[in-house]
Amino acid sequence: MKRLLPLLLAGSLSAQSLQLVVNLRSGAIVFQEDCGQLLDRSIPAGSLFKIFLAYAALAEGSDPARTVFCPPSSPTLPVRDNCWFRAGHRNQDLVQALANSCDRYFMTLAERVPIDAFVAFLDSLDLVVQIPDTDHNHEYTAGESMVGLNPHWRFPPLKLLAAVAWLVYGRCVPGGNSLPILEEKFRAPLRRGLREAAVYGTAQGFQEGMDFKVSGKTGTFVRVIPQLERSKLSGIFVGFFPDPEPEYCVLVFNAAGNGREQARAAGVRVRKLLAAGKIHIRR
Ligand SMILES: [Zn+2]
Known about the structure:
Elements: E1 6-8, E2 17-23, E3 29-35, E4 43-44, H1 49-59, E5 68-70, E6 90-92, H2 94-100, H3 103-110, H4 115-124, H5 142-146, E7 154-155, H6 157-169, H7 184-199, H8 204-207, E8 215-225, E9 230-241, E10 248-254, H9 259-275
Parallel strand pairs: 1-8
Antiparallel strand pairs: 2-3, 2-10, 4-7, 5-6, 8-9, 9-10
Helix pairs in contact: 2-7
The site of zinc ion (ZN) has 7 residues, from helix 3.
């Protein structure tokens, strides 16, 4: 699915992948497979940013029930002016826009959030933006950066996972840095959005084959490989289970494959861990 942005990495993330499963009660990493030492590096957050932008907009007084119309668009037009879903999502409220990862909705939402306030919000969640907002081909607008279209906004995977878990569910994962007190009323639509993503949206692959409810958010990048003069899709997924009181969270990043595929891969990994008795769900 999603995210058509140029990741000008000169192929540096080729054949890189990472899977992490964390116990939200103990904070322990219960599974880790890191091909490429990604835990020590930074990865693009992509459309995971839409979760952060949603919270920041709610804190600015945005109404989650307000809808934005996402029209059909041509694949020849930039995603930033339209949506990755070229057929158009039609009318989207916040929960639907999170579930479908609607670019048009979030580009509209970004107009309501000052970039400085957004960067400060990320900083309060221990996600420090240190990278310049330009590359050789494109200068990224504040809106593009806030919806995850700027590939230079990268963070250590564990910090990214910790920030999402705290933002959406108020759960701490390893790291232990003090995080800001967040408004429960703003978290509620985020939780609904991530749940509905697993029901009908971009994260359905995480729900497939599970006998309990799950939630999650995907992101897809286009990684340009200049020496090959072509591009490949890369994807990221963060998921929680079981819903609505998650006991574990999972992060999957893969330089090959889109966000939907990473959601499916996360489901396969979780089912293997359950079958092997490595993790347990309280029924
Ligand atoms: Zn859309």
